[in-house]
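Not sure how to ask, but would you mind making up any protein sequence you like and the tokens describing how it folds?
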Amino acid sequence: MPYTASIGLEVHVQLKTRTKIFCGCRNEFGGEPNTFVCPVCLGYPGSMPTVNEEAIRLTVISGMMIGSRISEYSKFDRKNYFYPDMPKNYQISQYDKPLCVGGSVNIAVGGVQKTIGVTRIHLEEDVGKNMHFETSSGVDFNRAGTPLMEIVSEPDLSTPDEAFEYLLALKQILVYGGVSECNLEQGNMRCDVNVSVRPEGSDKLGTKAEIKNMNTFKGVRAALQYEIRRQIGTLEKGGQIVQETRRWNPDAGVTESMRSKEYAHDYRYFPEPDLMPVVIAGSQLVEWRKQIPELPQARRERFVAEYGIPEYDAGVLVADKVVADFYEETARLSGNAKAASNWVMTDVLRCLSEKEMELAQAPITPRALADLIKLVDVKTLNIPRAREVFAILFEQGGDPAAIVKERGMAQVSDTGAIDAFVEQAIAANAKSVEDFKAGKTAALQFLVGQVMRLSKGKANPQVVQEALRKRLVRD
């Protein structure tokens, strides 16, 4: 019997604010354990929280970017539970009146477009971090109180690939909006996965399993691939799926049961008594809406229309905002948008991948790459030499023209100099000359290569080929 999966994601995103959500402690990654803390985020009795307005703004802008309805009235609630990483033994969150309701994210898998509904976006505080050692454990509360936005999707996803693309699309939107760094290694973005299977054609959702604390997109995809197979296998053997919380074991490639979960967990929510409701004036929403930047989909369409590059190129470039910004500045400064696209997609991205680094860490600048493109356009450099210059720029930066001058790399287009190299190549390769005259066109390319070698790569290949043709045809 064929089965259909239903997948919903609860994505947790740390907001890019200067301070924590309910106190003035620094909101920074790293630092010595328990140094970015105060009585409020440590939950000392009598300490009073105050709301970080920037966290409200960033959450509202996130909702606006995906088409949510923004609540002009919302409130915070206490969510009671007891874990060592929760210093107050309750979490300040939002229950029945979140900041953002509804919305959607568009994805494409295998060329098929799909819209994934979003149930809500609410704002809460992050918890501390448990740290386990060989003979002891500890808790670092530096992260406790970090503004944390939870984006809850509808169970509209049906395959692991769709879940992967949804996370990528959501990350792009949030990074473009300046809402979060979405750095998975630093824990800025992580998610809980809810998944169930049901017989194909059935409208009734199956019993779900929750996979907690996923912090890589590839991990989410792999965990779903396994969990869907596990649930289908259980049902086909006549077993039943139990509602439970599971964890992903990447080394073994399996999900493992952590604990059973009741269908209704009682967190004993009640309104947070130390915080007033959040009331946002309509004029404030108008002002915040003006702050929404150009989003990835719109930028892809503009790159195609404005710069005349293929849709595929635009999609690759826009996937990373830093790369898109770098490309656009290079295209503007060089005046050659297609060449800029080729260099960024082929050479810049390749070097970043090989060195496992971010573009912001590379010494090369848009100005330097644009100047390099201009040197190729005016035939000062041929492509092989230009790539040598690019390697230097990527490693240490600098001015392309100065590098070319210092190293004597300028392309030779002088016909007199090239004719001399042509004569040497013909004299040294009589067999290839005869092959060309016999109709073997590959022989010409061999001779071009010989001329390029004699010129130490400086000769203009087009001029070389033309000079060889004239010389050989004349003979």
